[in-house]
Amino acid sequence: MKPPLLLIGQGSNDDADSAEFGRFVHRLRCRLDQQAADVSGGYLERATPRLSESVASLVARGHHRLVAMPLSLNRLAEDLPAALELEQQRHPTLMYDYGRPLGPDPRVLALLAERLNDAAADIPRMRPLELVGARPRLRAVDTLLADGLQTHVEPGETAVVLVGEGATDPAANAEVHRVSRLFWETHAYDFMTVETAFVSLTPPGVPGGLERCRRLGAKRVIVVPYLLFAGATLERVWAQALAYGAGHPDLDIRCAEVIGDCETLADVVIDRYEEALQLVP
Question: 195-225 pLDDT, tens per residue?
């Protein structure tokens, strides 16, 4: 039997994010069950199950070696090595190997391109009607020319804002800028530009990214969240975009969906898992 895969999330108080994380763990469990590999998931903080609980459960089932993989688009969480070292102290027979974070894998970039293209489709323009809870309810408002035809915006008049979470680590923020450039050159070169913005902790924020696109002459801006799952962070992206759009009604602002729980994302994780197994002596 292969060593189990332990997917590790940072954790938050957001039920929506936790639910989607749990669904993705279940997807991986179903996929790897055919390879006789156990799959578990745990959080470093705030949400349950905690990492310590998941590790204890795996050890109780007879596993003493595992592949620990941060379910993250960016760098390893700074406290992850210390957390796993603590688990080794609790379970002296435990050994683990790291799986690489997802990062800008070509398939991840392709998923971002799918979300971008869905948002860019020539559907009637979307404007906010009201906020229902934390999630915006939208209504379609046709943008019409004087002759009654719907306004058509070319890709060259459309800018993209790729939005990362933001961190206090400059290297982590620089990685999001790198992803923006890779995304533009591989999947969005027909668009005016791909700008980078962050939800919090470091500038520019979403309004700053949108403002730069407006000043560059964009008629439409598509906000693409560089996030795995829906939840409070996505809501903040939408809220910031909606707030900026309220003051700039002539700019067509659209928000794409997150990458989300899907088979392609599972393919990337499984490849990272298999890669880690090949490094095991």
Answer: 999 999 999 999 999 999 999 999 999 999 9
Eight-state DSSP code of residue 155 = G
Neighbouring residues of 181: CB distance < 8 A, sequence distance ≥ 6: 194
For 81-126, what is each residue's pLDDT tens digit? Answer: 888 899 999 999 999 888 888 889 999 999 999 999 999 985 544 4
In this structure, is residue 275 part of a structural domain?
no
Distance CA 212, CA 48 (A): 40
Angle (CA) 106-202-170 rounded to 5° is 65
**pTM, two decimal places:** 0.86
Residue labelled with tokens 């941060």: 70
CA distance 194 to 255: 14
144 secondary structure, DSSP code: B
Whole-number Å distance between alpha carbons of 76 and 70? 7
Domain containing 52 equals 5-101
